[in-house]
Design brief:
Helix content is 49%, strand content 17%. It is α/β, with parallel strands linked by helices and 223 residues long. Strand 4 and strand 5 form a beta hairpin. The two termini are 14 Å apart. Bound molecules: 2'-deoxycytidine-5'-monophosphate (DC). The site of 2'-deoxycytidine-5'-monophosphate (DC) has 15 residues, from helix 2, helix 4 and helix 8. 2'-deoxycytidine-5'-monophosphate binds next to helix 2, helix 4 and helix 8.
């Protein structure tokens, strides 16, 4: 039997940073489902598909084979056999991923892969619909959030550190738009599962968030 921890929340809430640290501490496999949507988005961008063209997205996504590989505990996303880890962290790919993820054919393409991973390993899986749809029986469900200005600031600093700075105003605008799209889509919208614990990270630093979640995991018997 494997233990599953589901983390959902809006863009920039700190899900991946926290999930990576927790996975290391607990010896779980970290599964970043956003990266899978981003890999499909990269394929769509390369094929010059427009974000609003649902029909073309449904058709073209069938050509994109996404697989995950783990090297020294790091998740690598392969798109038709190519390691695209270094190409998917841009705002352009993120926005396309948000558009494409509202298309049922795209979600169907990734759902089974995500469930299979969780069935075979102890996983911490993060995304938008993990607690509500992908792993409804997860042992621990968390909904991580923070105010939009805080989340935009984190994204801004992340991009700056990578040497690809953007405009703060534009990043905040993108984050607000992306959240609205992720929350209001028809299929698997972003929302807190009824049995998820809400963690607002606006005024918390990373160790505080990790400790809060470790305590929740302890209470649920995952440690
Ligand atoms: O977490 P992220 O920024 O890498 O995700 C990119 C987009 O992918 C996000 O805006 C919505 C979509 N996504 C989703 O719909 N469901 C998931 N489980 C993960 C991501």
């Amino acid at each position: 039997m494997s233990y599953n921890i589901a983390i959902d929340g809006p863009a920039g809430a700190g899900k991946s940073t926290i999930a990576k640290l927790l996975a290391k501490k607990l010896g779980y496999v970290y599964v970043d489902t956003g990266a899978m949507y981003r890999a499909i988005a990269l394929y769509l961008l390369r094929e010059k598909v427009r974000p609003g063209d649902t029909e073309a997205i449904s058709r073209t996504c069938m050509e994109a084979e996404v697989t995950l590989l783990y090297q020294d505990g790091e998740q690598m996303v392969l798109l038709n056999g190519e390691n695209v880890n270094g190409l998917i962290r841009t705002e352009e790919v993120g926005n396309m991923a948000s558009n494409a993820s509202a298309v049922p054919a795209v979600r169907a393409r990734l759902l089974q892969l995500q469930r299979d991973l969780a069935a075979s390993e102890n996983v911490i899986m993060d995304g938008r619909d993990i607690g509500t749809c992908v792993l409804p029986d997860a042992d621990v469900k968390l909904f991580l959030t923070a105010g939009s200005a805080v989340r935009a600031r984190r994204r801004y600093e992340e991009l700056l550190a990578k040497g690809t700075p953007g405009s703060f105003e534009q990043i905040e605008k993108d984050i607000i738009e992306r959240d609205a799209r992720d929350r209001n889509r028809e299929i698997s919208p972003l929302r807190q599962a009824e049995d998820a614990c809400l963690v607002d990270t606006s005024d918390m630093d990373i160790p505080q968030v990790v400790d809060t979640i470790l305590e929740i995991c302890r209470q649920k018997g995952c440690i």
